[in-house]
């Protein structure tokens, strides 16, 4: 059974091993943590910089065998009813088995039922088809917004998606 809990410092050691290629790393980090490969220190800096922020929640999904995934929930603006998922990644040993969908559903349950949000947004690169499929499977829909990023000397297109509380 998959569960969520707050991210803890020792989790970084596992999470940084989940990407073995630069493209894979940039798909979930958008280069915000710097260049590939990400270090444990850089991941911790990215997460702990907002440690005392009541509108930022780094979370991990886990089961009886250990960590399955990681993502953040943050309130990007002044409206606590609108939150954003970021840094969404699933342990490569667990990909393609429904764990991403389970993790996102738990995250949606948290933000809608406990935090009290009405809307969740996220960005996904157009070259990350498996993530797009996963997001759609839990109800995210494209909202028409696009943003261009320069990643590793290439132009990547970010597709904005959102889901609303039912």
What would your notes on this structure say?
With 166 residues, the protein is α+β, with helices and mostly antiparallel strands. It has five helices and seven strands, in the order βαααβββαβαββ. The protein has helices at 11-15, 22-29, 40-48, 99-115, 129-137; strands at 3-6, 56-63, 66-74, 82-90, 119-125, 141-151, 154-164. A seven-stranded mixed beta sheet has the order 1-2-3-4-5-7-6. Strand 4, helix 4 and strand 5 (119-125) form a beta-alpha-beta unit. The longest helix has 17 residues, at 99-115. The radius of gyration is 15 Å and the shape is globular. It starts with a strand and ends with a strand. The mean pLDDT is 95.
> Helical residue percent?
25-40%
Low-pLDDT windows of residues: none
Strand content: 35-45%
Query: Can you tell me the overall shape?
Result: globular
Q: Would you count the extended β strands for me?
A: 7
């Amino acid at each position: 059974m998959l569960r969520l809990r707050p991210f803890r410092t020792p989790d970084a050691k596992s999470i940084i091993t989940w990407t073995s290629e630069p493209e894979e790393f940039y798909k979930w980090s958008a280069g915000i943590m710097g260049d590939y490969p990400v270090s444990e220190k850089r991941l911790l800096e990215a997460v702990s910089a907002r440690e005392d922020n009541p509108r930022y929640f780094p979370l991990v999904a886990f089961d009886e065998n250990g960590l399955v995934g990681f993502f953040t929930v943050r309130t990007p603006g002044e409206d606590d009813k609108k939150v954003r998922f970021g840094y969404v990644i699933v342990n490569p040993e667990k990909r393609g088995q429904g764990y991403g969908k389970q993790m996102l559903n738990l995250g949606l349950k948290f933000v809608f039922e406990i935090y009290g949000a009405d809307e969740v947004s996220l960005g996904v690169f157009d070259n990350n088809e498996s993530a797009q499929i996963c997001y759609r499977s839990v109800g995210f829909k494209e909202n028409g917004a696009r943003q261009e990023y320069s990643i590793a000397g290439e132009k990547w297109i970010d597709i904005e998606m959102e889901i609303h509380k039912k």
